[in-house]
Backbone:
């Protein structure tokens, strides 16, 4: 945002921040967890499931 301000284009620029909606069920989750990587943090689920681990998709627009 500071770079857009410096260029003078902030008033005419739409910036969108978003995220992927979860880890692939094809990932070896047990192996990832062995190395202390928890893709869904404390939430359940992987991509394509109905659990809360995948549907947290923040959307911020300015």
Residues:
């Amino acid at each position: 945002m500071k770079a857009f301000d410096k260029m003078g284009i902030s008033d005419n620029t739409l910036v969108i921040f978003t995220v992927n909606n979860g880890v692939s069920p094809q990932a070896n989750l047990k192996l990832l967890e062995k190395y202390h990587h928890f893709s869904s943090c404390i939430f359940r689920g992987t991509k394509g499931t109905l659990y809360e681990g995948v549907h947290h998709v923040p959307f911020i627009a300015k």
